[in-house]
C-alpha cells in the first residue's frame, strides 16, 4: 500500500475547487511527456480503471464529478492496484449523451475543470505509476461543434465534413435511407435552410445532437490526427476509441433493408475502408516514445471473423471483449466466451481486454441477481425485466465477486468500471424526471436507459451524498445534491465502510489485483483443467502454480486435495467451493 490515503476523512469540507493532492504526489511529479513504469508492452496485461468523471468524485460541491475530484481520489485507485485510468469524455460538451457529443476536442468542459487541471491529473497519475487513457469520439461531433454550426449556417466546406443528403419523396420529405439510430428512431434529421425553408437531412447514428462526420473528407481525418497529437503531447498514454467500427459508411448510403446492425452486415457499419483510419492512427501513436496505445470499442456483426481485422499489428492494440456483458452466469457459455476470445487473440497476437461491465450496460451485481438467460441477453432485454423480476442482490453480488476472480485470472487486460470494486448494483428506481440518458427520452420513457449504472459513487458517511461532494462549496454555500440520486442502501457499500473489512468487495479487489501483479505478470497461456462437475470451471496459467476454480452451479464442489487458497470471492472451508464462489489456489505448496 502507498502512503496515499485511501479514504479521506469523512465528508471533509473541501473549501476550494483546487484539491490538495497528497505531498507524496507533489514530490514525485513527473514531466508531462514521461509515462510511468517500465515496459513498453504494459498494455498487454494491465488493469485499467474506467472513470465516469461526472460520477467519480465532486471537488467543488456542484453535485457533478470533476477533474479536481478525480485528483483528490487518485490514492483510492493507486491502492486498488490499477495500472491505468481511462477517463470517459471530458471535453466541452452540451452533455446530451454524457459527453459523447463533443463540442471542442481540445477543451475540458467547464463543469469538469480546466486544461491545466487535466494536465496536472496526468502528471499526478504518472507520479503514482498509473497511465492515463482518454476517450476519443471520432464518429460524430456535437451539433454544437463549430463545424456543425457553420454547416447549418450554410458553409459549404463545413457541410462537406458531415453527411448531408437530400430527402426522398416528391418534396424531400422522407429520410435519404432507412437506417435506424442506435438510440431509436430514424438516423436522419431534416434541417432548415438559413432562410427557414425545409432543407437537406443529416445522418446521426446516435442522437440527433450527434451528427456523423464524413470520413471520406481529408479535413476530418487531419483534424482527428491533430486532436490525438494535442493530447499525446500532454503525456496522455492512449485512447479508448468510441464506435471504432463506425466512421466509414458504404458508398451511396444504400438502404439497410431491415438488416439488424448487431447481427448482420449493415451499410452503416464495419466497412473495410475504416482500417485505413486505424493504420494512420497507429503510425502516429508509434512515433511517440513510449508509443501511445488504443483500445477499440467495436461491435462488428460476425464478431469472431471481423473483430480481428481491427487488431492487425499495424492497427489498434486491443479491443474490448464484450461477450461477458451479456453472457449468463453459467459454466458452458462462459467457457465458450473465453475460448472464442483467446482464439481471436491467437490470430492477431493482441491480448483480450476483459470487461464485466461499463457505462452502457446494467451493472453485473444486478445482472446476476435475476434468473439467468438461456440465450444471450441484450441491454434492452435486461432492463425490460426490471419491473417483473425482483433482484436477489446478495446472490448477484456473490456471483459478481466470483466473476472477477475468474476474469482477473485470464490472460490479457482487465477493465474495472467505476464502483465495481465496491460491489455497486444498478439503481433501477431513478425517477423518470431525473433520468438524462437519450435512450430513455427517445424510447418515450419505455426504456429506463443507462443512468442506473452511472450514479455517483458512495465514498463515506451514512447518507447521500456519501462523501461524493464536499458539504460546502468554495463560497461557503451548501453543496448541491449529486446529479443522480444515490440509494440509501449504499451506506453499507461506501469505500470507507469497506476499507479494512477483509470480507468486503473492496478488499477482495485489492487482494486480487495485488496477487495478479505478483503471480501472473509474465504468466503463460491458459489451460483448462478437469473439473468435478460441468458447472465448475477450473483453469491454470502456464508457467505458474496458480489455478482458478469457479463454481457456477447450485451445489458445493470439491477443490483439489491439499490446495491452498490464495484468494476467494466468498468463504471457502474444508476444501469445498460453495455455489457461486471462485478461488485462486495453489496445489501442493
Ligand atoms: C459508445 C459509448 O460507450 C456510448 O456511451 C455512447 O452513447 C455511444 N458510443 C455514442 O458515442
What is the share of helical residues? 25-40%
> Termini distance?
26 Å
Instruction: Please state the average pLDDT score.
Output: 93
Question: At CATH's second level, what is the architecture of the domain at 524-586?
Answer: Sandwich
- The CATH topology of the domain at 524-586 comes to Immunoglobulin-like
Radius of gyration over alpha carbons? 24 Å
Within CATH, the superfamily of the domain at 524-586 carries the name Golgi alpha-mannosidase II
Q: What small-molecule ligands were found? A: 1-deoxynojirimycin
Give the structural class.
alpha/beta
* Name of the level-1 CATH class of the domain at 524-586: Mainly Beta
Runs with pLDDT <50, length 5+?
1-35
- Main sheet strand line-up: 1-2-5-9-10-11-12-13
Task: Compute the number of strand runs.
Answer: 20
Question: How many H/I helices?
Answer: 17
Structure characterization notes:
Among the domains are: 146-203, Oligo-1,6-glucosidase, Domain 2 (Oligo-1,6-glucosidase, domain 2); 524-586, Golgi alpha-mannosidase II (Immunoglobulin-like, Sandwich), CATH 2.60.40.1180. It is built from 17 helices and 20 strands. The protein has helices spanning 23-27, 53-56, 67-72, 74-80, 115-127, 146-152, 156-159, 218-232, 274-286, 303-310, 331-348, 364-367, 379-384, 393-407, 438-442, 495-498, 505-520; strands spanning 47-51, 84-87, 91-92, 104-108, 131-136, 164-165, 188-192, 198-203, 238-241, 293-296, 318-321, 353-355, 413-417, 526-528, 536-541, 546-551, 557-558, 564-568, 576-577, 581-586. An eight-stranded parallel barrel has the order 1-2-5-9-10-11-12-13. A five-stranded antiparallel sheet has the order 14-15-16-20-18. It has a three-stranded antiparallel sheet with strand order 6-8-7, with no helix packed on it. The model is unreliable at 1-35 (pLDDT under 50). 1-deoxynojirimycin binds next to loops. 1-deoxynojirimycin binds at residues 97, 100, 137, 206, 242-243, 297, 359-360.
Amino acid at each position: 500500500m502507498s502512503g496515499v490515503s485511501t479514504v479521506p476523512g469523512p465528508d471533509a469540507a473541501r473549501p476550494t475547487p483546487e484539491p490538495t493532492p497528497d505531498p507524496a504526489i507533489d514530490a514525485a511529479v513527473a514531466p508531462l511527456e514521461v509515462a510511468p513504469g517500465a515496459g513498453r508492452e504494459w498494455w498487454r496485461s494491465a488493469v485499467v480503471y474506467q472513470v465516469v468523471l461526472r460520477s467519480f468524485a465532486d471537488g467543488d460541491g456542484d453535485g457533478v464529478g470533476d477533474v479536481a475530484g478525480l485528483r483528490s481520489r487518485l490514492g483510492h485507485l493507486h491502492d486498488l492496484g490499477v495500472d491505468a485510468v481511462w477517463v470517459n469524455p471530458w471535453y466541452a460538451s452540451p452533455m446530451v449523451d454524457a459527453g459523447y457529443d463533443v463540442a471542442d476536442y481540445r477543451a475540458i468542459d467547464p463543469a469538469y475543470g480546466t486544461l491545466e487541471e487535466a494536465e496536472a491529473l496526468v502528471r499526478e497519475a504518472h507520479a503514482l505509476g498509473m497511465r492515463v487513457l482518454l476517450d476519443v469520439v471520432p464518429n460524430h461531433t456535437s451539433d454544437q461543434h463549430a463545424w456543425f454550426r457553420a454547416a447549418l449556417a450554410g458553409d459549404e466546406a463545413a457541410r462537406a465534413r458531415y453527411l448531408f443528403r437530400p430527402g426522398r419523396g416528391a418534396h424531400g420529405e422522407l429520410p435519404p435511407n432507412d437506417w435506424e439510430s442506435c438510440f431509436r428512431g430514424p438516423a436522419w434529421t431534416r434541417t432548415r435552410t438559413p432562410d427557414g425553408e425545409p432543407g437537406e437531412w443529416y445522418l446521426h447514428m446516435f442522437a440527433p445532437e450527434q451528427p456523423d462526420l464524413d470520413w471520406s473528407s481529408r479535413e476530418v481525418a487531419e483534424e482527428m490526427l491533430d486532436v490525438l497529437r494535442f493530447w499525446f503531447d500532454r503525456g496522455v498514454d492512449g485512447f479508448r476509441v468510441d464506435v471504432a467500427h463506425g466512421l466509414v459508411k458504404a458508398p451511396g448510403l444504400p438502404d439497410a433493408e431491415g438488416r439488424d446492425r448487431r447481427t448482420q452486415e449493415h451499410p452503416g457499419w464495419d466497412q473495410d475502408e475504416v482500417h485505413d483510419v486505424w493504420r494512420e492512427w497507429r503510425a502516429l501513436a508509434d512515433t511517440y516514445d513510449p508509443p501511445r496505445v488504443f483500445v477499440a470499442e467495436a461491435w462488428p456483426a460476425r464478431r469472431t471473423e471481423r473483430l480481428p481485422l481491427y487488431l492487425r499489428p499495424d492497427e489498434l492494440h486491443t479491443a474490448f471483449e464484450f461477450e461477458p456483458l451479456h453472457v449468463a452466469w453459467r459454466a458452458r457459455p462462459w467457457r465458450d466466451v473465453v475460448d472464442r476470445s483467446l482464439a481471436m487473440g491467437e490470430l492477431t497476437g493482441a491480448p483480450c481486454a476483459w470487461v464485466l461491465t461499463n457505462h452502457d450496460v446494467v451493472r453485473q451485481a444486478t445482472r446476476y441477481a435475476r434468473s439467468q438467460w438461456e440465450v444471450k441477453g441484450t441491454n434492452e432485454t435486461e432492463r425490460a425485466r426490471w419491473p417483473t423480476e425482483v433482484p436477489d442482490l446478495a446472490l448477484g453480488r456473490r456471483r459478481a465477486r466470483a466473476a472477477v476472480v475468474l476474469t482477473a485470472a485470464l490472460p490479457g487486460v482487465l477493465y474495472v468500471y467505476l464502483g465495481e470494486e465496491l460491489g455497486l448494483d444498478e439503481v433501477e428506481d431513478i425517477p423518470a424526471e431525473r433520468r438524462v440518458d437519450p435512450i430513455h427520452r427517445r424510447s418515450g420513457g419505455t426504456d429506463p436507459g443507462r443512468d442506473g449504472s452511472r450514479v455517483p459513487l458512495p465514498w463515506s458517511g451514512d447518507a447521500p451524498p456519501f462523501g461524493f461532494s464536499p458539504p460546502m462549496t468554495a463560497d461557503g454555500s451548501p453543496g448541491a445534491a449529486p446529479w443522480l440520486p444515490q440509494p440509501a442502501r449504499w451506506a453499507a457499500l461506501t469505500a470507507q465502510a469497506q476499507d479494512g473489512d477483509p470480507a468486503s468487495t473492496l478488499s477482495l479487489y485489492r487482494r486480487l489485483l495485488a496477487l495478479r501483479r505478483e503471480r501472473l505478470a509474465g504468466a503463460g497461456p491458459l489451460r483448462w483443467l478437469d473439473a468435478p462437475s460441468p458447472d465448475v470451471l477450473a483453469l491454470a496459467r502456464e508457467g505458474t502454480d496458480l489455478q482458478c476454480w469457479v463454481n457456477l452451479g447450485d451445489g458445493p464442489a470439491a477443490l483439489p486435495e491439499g490446495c491452498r487458497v490464495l484468494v476467494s470471492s466468498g468463504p471457502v472451508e474444508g476444501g469445498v467451493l460453495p455455489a457461486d464462489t471462485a478461488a485462486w489456489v495453489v496445489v501442493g505448496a
